[in-house]
User: Which sequence fits this backbone?
């Protein structure tokens, strides 16, 4: 082999360290440390185009589906191309993929367990990915590439935002949509003054902040205020903080939590123009040890708009205060109780 050819060979086969590191970081998230289909621990296989991590048994079933439906790779033995890694990273792992492929999983159709028979395992996996029985038939998505890649950012602009692109100025084209957030109420909030608190809510996304009014001496405040935040193209989690207002000293934190916007936006991208859909569930954000969810959160279409309901446990709050509830939808609605957040 000539020097030039040897160089080309090394250049084409040498892994991209940055992307490989991101894939490894994705693998160690708690929801990716179990098989997406049966829950078996420590999966060593993955479907690169679907974006899920799999055990050996489920991987065998996926392989039988063919690469057009599921491209199976070993996470330890196979060489991953840049596009394969990009597909996995775009989807975000098991929780995000399952929020689409299991959006309408019936209660009487349980997922396989690690010790389930191959017959049942095969039946479930084929129903989930090949015939996509747990999606509305008219909304079935292609598995030839990751489902997140089947739509463009332009699709998000039209599906997620209530504002037409014709009305978007040059200065706002960095955003893909807008959240309308209704801060509703709080119940049994933490005491930060002598006997009470003066609570208010701050929402942060990127460099933007939105703040509710202060409710004086009220541990059970009622706000019913609408806050608006634009969603940037490179969005991260929406951060929610509850503070106690002080006149003569720094405001005291009463609790905080992060809301992952990806399940909602991923569902909106996969299902197209939601204004044409009837009321229906289109996705789910799964509770894991890595997030603040108290239970799985569904993503729904209501009156043509994407909405989500979440129940979050506020962080950095002393244990004697049980929780706050926050409402989260396309028109994010918060209603805090104690230290739990649950979205309406």
Assistant:
């Amino acid at each position: 082999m000539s020097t030039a050819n040897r160089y080309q060979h090394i250049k084409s086969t040498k892994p991209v360290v940055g992307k490989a590191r991101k894939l490894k970081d994705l693998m160690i998230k708690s929801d990716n440390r179990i098989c997406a289909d049966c829950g078996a621990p420590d999966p060593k296989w993955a479907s690169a185009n679907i974006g899920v991590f799999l055990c050996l048994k489920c991987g065998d079933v996926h392989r039988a589906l063919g690469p057009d439906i599921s491209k199976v790779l070993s996470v330890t033995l196979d060489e991953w191309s840049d596009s394969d890694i990009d597909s996995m990273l775009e989807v975000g792992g098991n929780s995000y993929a399952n929020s689409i492929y299991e959006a309408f999983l019936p209660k009487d159709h349980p997922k396989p367990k690690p010790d389930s028979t191959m017959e049942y395992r095969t039946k479930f996996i084929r129903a989930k990915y090949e015939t996509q029985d747990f999606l509305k038939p008219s909304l079935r998505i292609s598995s030839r590439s990751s489902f997140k890649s089947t739509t463009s950012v332009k699709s998000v602009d039209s599906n997620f935002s209530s504002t037409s692109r014709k009305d978007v100025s040059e200065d706002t084209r960095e955003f893909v949509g807008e959240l309308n957030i209704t801060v509703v109420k709080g119940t049994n909030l933490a005491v930060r003054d002598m006997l009470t608190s003066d609570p208010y809510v701050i929402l942060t996304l990127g460099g933007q902040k939105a703040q509710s009014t202060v409710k004086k001496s009220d541990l059970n405040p009622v706000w019913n205020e609408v806050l608006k935040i634009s969603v940037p193209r490179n969005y991260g989690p929406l951060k929610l903080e509850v503070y106690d207002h002080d006149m003569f000293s720094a405001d005291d934190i009463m609790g905080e939590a992060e809301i992952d916007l990806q399940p909602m936006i991923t569902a909106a991208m996969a299902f197209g123009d939601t204004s044409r859909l009837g009321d229906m569930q289109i996705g789910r954000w799964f509770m894991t040890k890595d997030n603040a969810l108290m239970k799985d959160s569904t993503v729904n279409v209501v009156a043509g708009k994407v909405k989500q309901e979440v129940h979050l446990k506020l962080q950095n709050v002393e244990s004697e205060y049980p929780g706050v509830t926050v409402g989260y939808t396309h028109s994010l609605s918060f209603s805090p109780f104690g230290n739990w957040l649950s979205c309406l």
